[in-house]
Amino acid sequence: MLKSDGLKKVKNDLILVGVICTLSLVGFLIFKLTMKDGNRVSVSINGEEKYSYSITDNVETDIITGNNGENNNTLVIKDRKAYIKSATCPDKICVGHRPISKDGETIVCLPHKIVVSITEGK
Amino acid sequence: MKKIISLILVGLIIIGITSLTGCQKDAVYEKFTDYSFDYFDTVTTIIGYEKSKQDFDKNCDKIKGLLDEYHKLYTIYNRYDGINNLCLINSVKDSEHSELKVDQKIIDMLNFAKEMYELSDGKLNIAMGCVLSIWHNYRQDGISSPINAKLPPYESLIKANEHTDINNLIIDEKSGTVYISDPQMKLDVGAVAKGYAVEKIAEYMKQNGMDGYLLNVGGNVRAVGNRRDGKKWTIGIENPDTDDTEKTYIEYLEINDMSLVTSGSYQRFYTVDGKNYHHIIDPETLMPSDRYLSISVLCESSAYADALSTALFSMELEDGHKLIESLKDVEAMWVITNGQQIYSSKFKDYCTKE
Fold first, then answer.
1. With an 8 Å Cβ cutoff, are B5 and A13 in contact?
2. What is the pTM of this model?
């Protein structure tokens, strides 16, 4: 009787150890995953950060540039991804770029000097 | 038994704490990023790990000062007061005044370009300026007015190609002068100047203890020294198949103190009658080479990586492969038109899953 009680306790402790191990592993995995997915969408114009959004925001906004505000790039943030929906630049490379979501990814509009970047943020 | 389990638990907690302190140690160095549009007609990204924004800005200012200097010397599009640059070399017409005293940085870059001409068997030729400027103008017009997009008349390309002999570029090391003996010849250093400048700046940075930086000048990526958090840089190579919306990157590389340059036909192009014409012109056909979607070159020197990625574009796969294998510590990946990826012998050693 005593012996089996002891065994039961040992078994419970083992389960606890297992749970802790699993938890720490899961925690580690989540940490790793969130390291890859960015949290902020930053918009810089000619090298200066002008706007910043959370990647979880739902945004559709016009980024206006040029001396007389003649340039426009429409930024969309949806489903944790950011992309340029339309733009008045001649080459439209920014519009053709795939949506970005990972830390360090960028979309550049060279003619309008815009960088949309994903950062780790907080 | 209980004791053992308690010990294991204590052990786990200790591991937990040490990994926490490990995190805090990493946090001493913060990641900073700077974007600028002032150099080499492209976007420059500088990423560094420093203890403070001031430390980062101080280094950034030095790096950008050098980028500015090299840009002004190597540009073929603008002149600057008091600087004898490539644009001025191209515009000197009077044969009496054609010997131009230039900065040693120009002479070194031009010598490197000549070396690349030999190495690539003429596939990389900075004397192609006349041909490239015709394509440049038609491409610009075609991009700004797509309905009127036209191909350059072939005769005009053939005629321009008569003035592309690199031997007419005469460099006098002793007097520090440059002279083009064919008055109609023009230099276009687009395929070498940026990479060469980035490499020179990386050398300066290493000599001055600026380790762990990543310079990205328009896709010309140079990881300088070792990162201060002990990790490597992960760099994704973009999927050149722009219709594929699922797969953004076709390969991830882990590098430290190396350069990665990708030349592609999928970004800078214009469309005539439904066909895309990109910006890398084959010196033999005088047309954009249509063998590849993109070519990535990986090696320490950014100058070599830049020049080789362009040269390989105009080479048959077999010849290019042979060239890369003949060079020490240079690797390449070709994406051929059907999307297939071809690797040099050790390229995959640097690949990681993500």
1. yes
2. 0.85
